[in-house]
Amino acid sequence: MHRLAIVTIATALLAACAVPFRAGQTETELRAAAGAPTGRYTMPGGTTRLEYATGPMGRMTWMVDLDAQGRVARWDQVLDEAHFAAIVDGMPRDELLRTIGRPGHRAGEWMNRETWSWRYPTNDCLWFRVTLTPEGRVLHGGGFMPDPMCDPPRSERD
Question: Is the pTM of this model over 0.85?
């Protein structure tokens, strides 16, 4: 195995162990340990999902689900290809946000569309991009593009 792959896996495992989320925590205890969430969403069924994003340059977003009693039931790092695969054509903006959280970058496009982009842990220097229609629906389910932050400075390219 390549040394970089080993370091990447080890870093991911250490990061997973260091999360301040614990099953059964109240929201007050969670906020004391992790700080204020970057987003709050009502899930189908009335439960709550809290977003802890590290953007715009961060590559991790944690979603923490609270049960009906307001205690931590589960958490997941959602910026990965498995979660991106759940993004489908026609998905409403609110569902997109509940699924992978706020984007690290937003850009206006022609015809009143908007493109949102998320950096995520990858060795391929890609980001995940989704274009939204003027009505706030996902267009074409999203895709992967080279992250412009990975481009070498202009002086190194010439």
Answer: no
